[in-house]
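Q: Here's a chain of 346 amino acids. Please give me its 3D structure as tokens.
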Amino acid sequence: MALTDTKHINYKVVGVHLFLWGLYLLSEFLANLYHYPEGAYGQLLRDTLLSLPILMGATYLIAYFLVPRYLRRRKLWLFTGFTLLVAVVVFWSRVYWLAGINYLENGQFQTFPPSKILKNVIRDYSIIALGVCLKIIDDWYRKDRLARQLQRAKMEAELQLLRGQLHPHFLFNTLNNLYGLALRRSDRTAGGIHRLSQMLDYLLYSSKQETVSLQREIDFLKDYLALERLRYGDRLQVQLHFPENIPDLSIAPLLFLPFVENAFKHGGKNREGRFQIEASLEVKKRRKLVFTLKNTVNPGSAAAKKQGGIGLKNIRQRLDHLYPNRHSLYIEEKPDCFRMEMVLDA
């Protein structure tokens, strides 16, 4: 990338790098201030700046070449070997670099005690290690942020799928039922249209929010069940056990719908010839919700055997995303009955 290509230069990153190296120079200058006689501060600054290319070269070599090429690919032996080689190069660079500078200044090839050189190298390599660690941490943070973005995108895609789970045949049947009520001039026509409009409003607008009120979610569920009653008539028996006073809690939208849709998709008449659905919600202390749904199934039918299949697997995945370590889901399957219980810490 050309330096003049300003569109691809991250000035924020460049600024952070300059700040960190400036901070190192300042700390190095202050730490060695008492080793130099008064008035030799210019020489101290020069000596400090002269060691900077060695540090920067080693830091960026390890962070931007050895780490991605060997460490990330789990080639630990190669990474360790090359890192040690860089340490040796830093050591000899420090020795001959300082000796060469003194030779140019004094005409003498002055040597330094190995202990002093080793002390400086250890200090230098601590700075190098810190720089490499900061780069690794920054890479981890970027990957973690990307993973979170992908997770949010996946959750949003799943939510969009749930919003679209009011299948066309449900709307078609509902409209047909409303049309039949209208022809008979039934008093239930207006109520049915109102419930359908409320459901569509919830799906189109409210469900796009991260959370909705528990009351709104329950109202949506009641509207859905009421419209299904229009479709099934006396063949369907629905029992709802919800608190009279719903607490002021917020939950993720469309949490209950998949379970109810699952019941209508795979449920059916039991041996007594009744199609029953029973739903209950209990709100316990510390914002704990217990939602239970029970439905009859047609014993031996293919739909009954699939009730605990892919649909519930998707539900589990969504709960894992939305409420990690804050939910539990219990499934009980019997020959003529299916029961689920979801416990949620809202």
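Q: Can you summarize the key feature?
A: Strands lie at 212-213, 236-241, 250-251, 275-284, 288-296, 327-334, 337-345.
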